[in-house]
Amino acid sequence: MPRILMPIVPGFEETEAIATIDILRRAGVEVITAGDGATEITSAHNITMRTDIRWEDRDRKGPYDALILPGGPGTPRLNDLPGLHGLARTMEADGRLVAAICAAPTVLAKAGVLSGRKATCWPGSTADMGNVPLLEQPVVEDRRVITSRGVGTALDFALAIVAELVGQEKADKIADSIVYHRVAVAAS
Predict the structure, then answer these.
(1) Distance between CA 108 and CA 104 in Å, rounded?
(2) In this structure, are residues 66 and 32 in contact, taking their beta carbons and an 8 Å threshold?
(3) Residue 88 and residue 43 in contact, taking contact as beta carbons nearer than 8 Å
(4) Which one from 78, 102, 114, 160 is the annotated catalytic residue?
(5) Minimal CA–CA distance to 125: which of 144, 94, 101?
(6) Strand 139-141, strand 145-148: pairing
(7) Is this prediction's pTM over 0.70?
(8) Is 121 a catalytic residue?
(9) Which CATH architecture has domain 3-177?
(10) pLDDT the model gives residue 182
(11) Could you tell me the CA-to-CA distances from 42 to 5, 60, 110, 122 in Å, in that order?
(12) Do β-strands 145-148 and 3-8 pair in parallel, antiparallel, or remain unpaired?
């Protein structure tokens, strides 16, 4: 099964991280969470998460088949993680999956991973995306780079990653098992 690395920094958006981890683990994917300098990291809404390892120890658990970046107000700290930009570029160049949600696609843009690709991001981050062509879709996949808009698209994001890594059939089975179906809300 694929092995994924997910860095977790203070101020991360917990729904984007936890929902993605949950869906991937349901698919049998090994997700290694790596905390920024510690193994207990506090989220944007004061929820403390215990990570599997510290970011500094990530090489001991590798190699990884994918890199996933949750967003949130802590996203600028992702840009400061030693080696993250280089790792993202290397994984993209090797054809491994790279994914980011909410404000985190800005990290991929800064690393050069989105060069020549279409993407999406949280609407408040568009100014930090440079010349990347942006689409207003919940999830955008362009040659093994997946981006998504935010908390409201976290399940779509996670299921797209499962489809890419394990197959669409597995993603569909998980969606059915969690009773995930988009529902139109009628106005009264």
Answers:
(1) 7
(2) no
(3) no
(4) 102
(5) 101
(6) antiparallel
(7) yes
(8) no
(9) 3-Layer(aba) Sandwich (3.40)
(10) 63
(11) 18, 24, 25, 21
(12) unpaired
Calpha distance 113→130 (Å, rounded):
12
* Token pair of 149 as six digits: 């808009």
Three-state secondary structure string covering 76-96: HHHHHCCCHHHHHHHHHHCCC
Kindly list the domain boundaries of the chain, sorted by start residue. 3-177
Q: How far is residue 110's CA from residue 119's CA, in Å, rounded to a whole number? A: 13
Question: Tens digit of pLDDT for each residue in 81-107?
Answer: 999 999 999 999 999 999 999 999 999
Instruction: Write out the two tokens for 183.
Output: 């529902």
DSSP string, 29-77: -EEEEEESSSSEEE-TTS-EEE-SEEGGGGGGT---SEEEE--STTHHH
**Six token digits for residue 11:** 């101020």
CA proximity to 104, closest of 71, 77, 127: 71
Task: Give me the count of residues in the chain.
Answer: 188
Helix 14-26 vs helix 154-165: crossing angle, to nearest 10: 30
Predicted confidence (pLDDT) per residue in 33-84, tens digit:
999 999 999 999 999 999 999 999 999 988 999 999 999 999 999 999 999 9
